[in-house]
Structure formats: C-alpha cells, structure tokens
From TrEMBL:
Originating species: Glossina austeni (Savannah tsetse fly)
Source lineage: Eukaryota, Metazoa, Ecdysozoa, Arthropoda, Hexapoda
Protein location: Mitochondrion inner membrane
Family (UniProt): Belongs to the mitochondrial carrier (TC 2.A.29) family.
Name of the protein: Solute carrier family 25 member 40
Topology with respect to the bilayer: Multi-pass membrane protein
Pfam family, one: Mito_carr
GO BP of this protein: mitochondrial transmembrane transport
Length: 400
C-alpha cells in the first residue's frame, strides 16, 4: 500500500503530458531503407498522411525535373525529323516519357525552332552540332510554355492515384476487419495499385483531353482567345459535345494499361523488399524496372495510339479543311493491318527508343515524387510533435 502511494506521488510530481506520445524519427532516414523497421501503419496514419496540396507540390516538382532532363532527347529527335522532306501538313508526336503532345512538323513548332542548317547524324552528333550552332539552351526550346501546359495532367494523375489508393486501402482494411476479424493485412493486394493506377489515369486524361485539343489547335494556328471560343462552339455544333474528346479513346488505349501495369509492378517491388518509405535510389531503380516492363507490354497499344493520333492530327487538327468524319477502325483491324505490312516487328516498332525515354522518365518522376512525399511526411510528424509540446507546456503553465 505504501509502495502504491509513493508511486502515485512520483507520478504526480512529473510534468503533465498529453495521452498522445511523441513520434520519434531520430533513428530513421529521410526516405531510407531503415524505414523498414518502423511500424507499417505509421505512414498510413491519418495524422501524418500527405495532404492533397503536398501531393500537388510533389507531383509538380517531379514533373518539372523529369521534363528538364528528358526534353533535350526529344528536341534532338524532332530536329532530325525536320530534316526529312515532304513534311508539310504532317505532324509528329512529342513524347518525353511523361507527357506527349501532337505538334505540326514544321519550323513553327517550338520543339523544332530554328531549322537546322547542318545534317544531323545520330543523337550524339545532333547534340554537339545543335549546342555549337545555337547554344546549349536551344536543347530546351519549347519547354515553356508548351511543356508547362502538361503539368495539370501529371498533377491530376499522381494526386488522384494517391487519393484512390488511400480510399481503396481503407475499404481493404474494413473488409479484413469485418470478414476475417483482423484489421490488418500483411501485404497490399495487387488489385489496389492496379485499380488506383487505372482510375487515376482515366480521370487525368478525361479532364485534360478537351484542353489539350484546344491547346494544340491554338499552337498550330496562333488563335486568339476569341477565336478559341469560336472554335469550341464550332466543334460542339458540328460534332456534339463529345467532339471535344475525340482524341480520348486512343489515349486511354495506351495510357490506362500502362498505368495499371506500372503501379502494380512498382508497389509489388516495394512490398517484396518490405519497403514503406523508399530511398531515392530504391524508388529510382524500382521506377526504372516498372516503367520498362509497362512500356514493353503496352508497346502494341502505343503503336496503335500513335497511328490513330497522327492520322487524327493530319486529317482534323492541322488540316486546312478538317474532316467531319474520320473513319475509325477497331484495335484488331489496326493490329492486323500493321502485322500484314511489317509483321511482329511492326507491332513492337519503336520499343527500343520508347524504353530509352520511358524508363528514365518513370525513374526520375517516381523517385522525385517519393522523396518529396517523404519530406512532407517528416514535416507533418514534426508539426504534430510541436503541437503536442505546445499543448503540454500550456497545460503545465495552467497547473502551476
């Protein structure tokens, strides 16, 4: 009994502390592999979960860094395309592995800029000649504002993925608690990143598709805002409201399968190594591998999408007299046509260059995104600890 009283007195003499414990991150790295030793639920705790605005900043940072690193490769590619003859009324796909745009293949395109006076032989030769004749900065021609216009798509995509993933995980935990009597699962089911990636990509391309169509038309014809209004009304009158989404099906055809495969592979790699808060190097390598696998499996869809989008651009977007009806063909018909002409090599045409662009772009984007998320996670934990300490100090002051 006396012992209980002494213990009670000892507790009474201690400073008043809130019932919530401080979160100690001193023994963890900022996004390091040591995070494997932390409780798995800590990163999913609603108190520290990355907020939507922080996700926006993370996605924006990743998109800009990816664009800066990948733009020179496509500037060189489009310069070499510009050397070819009979390119009037033609168009090309600008794609840096993160974002792609349909552009007219002429000297007015910001990605082509000054028409090269020297013949370019290969990537290294083009890099040297363009840098010497026009300056190193010319390798980033068209980065602003055309690439910046693609940021909304990237932001919507990554933020939507994080939001969908969080909701699906909540449904998963609820299911385990109600059906199996255990609120926790050992691993993330592969369906969660698959569904999250698919739904996020559908949302992103659906929202941005009309804006991208208008932006491309504006770029090619230097239209004013009044002319844009007129063009939008004309499209709606002649083709209906769905005319603004004419380029959506081929985009979904490639991007949605890619997104589902990419996120499933990426999350499975993290789960295999039991990593919840990946380091920059880990996420870079995982993103590179996942991007390579997704790009390989979806190359046939990419070939079909490229054929359809370029055909659409030449007959509708950049044509002087746009066609109201562009004949559509099914996926099977297009694959059969390509196979009849070029065989399997045609179906997987461009796999090498695509891997060369997509894999590094995915690696740069996801590693930057994850590192930014890790930064904000630690920031949220520190803010939480500061609030607890402030509340404790106020409580102690009132008791005194």
């Amino acid at each position: 009994m006396g012992k209980d009283k002494s213990e009670a007195a000892e507790v009474t003499n201690q400073p008043a502390l809130s019932n919530t414990k401080l979160i100690n991150l001193q023994n963890t790295e900022l996004g390091g592999l040591k995070s494997r030793k932390k409780p798995k639920l800590l990163l999913d705790d609603p108190r520290f979960r990355i907020r939507p605005l922080q996700q926006v900043v993370s996605a924006c940072t990743g998109a800009m860094i990816t664009a800066i690193f990948m733009t020179p490769l496509d500037v060189i590619k489009t310069r070499m395309q510009a050397q070819q003859t009979q390119l009037s009324n033609k168009c090309f796909l600008y794609c840096n592995g993160l974002m792609d745009h349909l552009c007219p293949c002429d000297s007015k395109s910001p990605f082509i800029g000054i028409k090269p006076q020297q013949h370019l032989n290969g990537t290294i030769d083009a890099f040297i000649k363009i840098s010497r004749s026009e300056g190193i900065s010319s390798l980033w021609s068209g980065l602003s504002p055309t690439l910046v216009s693609a940021l909304p798509s990237t932001i919507i995509y990554f933020v939507a993925y994080e939001q969908f993933k969080a909701r699906y995980m909540e449904f998963h935990y609820t299911y385990l608690a109600e059906v199996k009597g255990s609120p926790m699962g050992r691993d993330v089911p592969f369906l969660i990143p698959l569904l999250s990636g698919v739904t996020a990509r559908i949302c992103a391309v659906t929202v941005v598709s009309p804006v991208e169509l208008i932006r491309t038309k504006m770029q090619s014809e230097k239209m004013t805002y009044a002319q844009i209004n007129s063009a939008v009304r004309n499209v709606v009158q002649t083709q209906g409201i769905w005319g603004l989404w004419r380029g959506l099906p081929p985009t979904i055809l490639r991007d949605v399968p890619f997104s589902g495969i990419y996120w499933t592979c990426y999350e499975k790699i993290k789960s295999h190594f039991n990593v919840k808060e990946p380091s920059f190097g880990f996420s870079f390598l995982a993103g590179f591998i996942s991007g390579s696998l997704a790009a390989t499996f979806t190359t046939p869809f990419d070939v079909i999408k490229t054929h359809e989008q370029i055909e659409f651009g030449e007959k509708v977007i950049f044509a002087e007299k746009p066609e109201k009806q562009v004949p559509s063909r099914t996926i099977t018909q297009r694959l059969s046509s390509i196979y009849a002409v070029s065989g399997m090599r045609g179906i997987f045409a461009g796999l090498g260059p695509r891997l060369f662009k997509v894999a590094p772009a995915c690696a740069i984007m996801i590693s930057t995104f994850e590192y930014s998320k890790s930064f904000f996670y630690h920031y949220n934990v520190n803010q939480y600890n500061d609030q607890i300490l402030s509340a404790d100090k106020l409580t102690n002051k009132n008791e005194v």
